[in-house]
Amino acid sequence: MVDLTRFSGRGAVITGGASGIGLRTAERIVSEGGTVCLWDIDPSRIDEAKEKLGPKAHGIALDIADPAAVAAAAPQAAEHLGKIDILICSAGIAGKNALVVDYPIEEWQRVFAINVHGLFYCNRFIVPFMKTNGYGRIVNVASIAGKEGNPTASAYSAAKAAVIGLTKSLGKELAKDNITVNAITPATVDTPILAQVSQAHIDYMLSKIPMGRFGTVDEIASIITWLASPECSFTTGAVFDVSGGRATY
């Protein structure tokens, strides 16, 4: 049975927090006693999410690919929340579908700027607040593509593999600081990000899932909230599959 007060007194920063997986996770944390600060590039989307979540939700509009913006947002979030206990990095883009030999260089750089560099900036600038508090839970959203590689999605696959590597490195670095760092590797989830990819690629991804369906935001939020909770106290640098049976290792 879920403890509906397990996030009481906890403050969480959630990137991509105004829609999809990020928003559903924010709803779970708020419903279980926590306070959230949503980081999203779209101010209007933040306003809608805050109205939905109520007074325990704050928001900062920023582009996480801008290190100066992330450096400025971290202390603002700490002020909103009182302290930062949790970081959930769910912001990301799918990128275009193309063969490696045809992949546009600018698009490759854009995918890495958001999915890797932006996630790195968020981890880098928020960890010091957690170390000061002597407590932290970090959950980085990677993808099954980062473990298996999807054809015509090389930028996305490579970026999510980088997220896994960063998570494992940081988990070891913080293992004695009461800060856990873990990643999840979902298969395809029915979120607005599907609008960024071709129907052929969507069909391919569905064909690879033994359960024969996409994941739901509720299923992903469930494992994220466990990893973000005090219950996750002896697991760090780990990767959790949420893939409907697709994962092979």
From TrEMBL:
Enzyme class: oxidoreductase
Keyword Oxidoreductase tagged: yes
Signal sequence segment: none
Known EC number: 1.1.1.100
Record-linked CDD domains: SDR_c
Keywords for this protein: Oxidoreductase
InterPro entries, per database record: NAD(P)-bd_dom_sf (IPR036291), Sc_DH/Rdtase_CS (IPR020904), SDR_fam (IPR002347)
Recorded coiled-coil stretches: none
Record's keyword annotation contains Oxidoreductase: yes
GO molecular-function terms, A-Z: 3-oxoacyl-[acyl-carrier-protein] reductase (NADPH) activity
Family listed: Belongs to the short-chain dehydrogenases/reductases (SDR) family.
Protein name: 3-oxoacyl-[acyl-carrier protein] reductase
Organism of this sequence: Kaistia dalseonensis
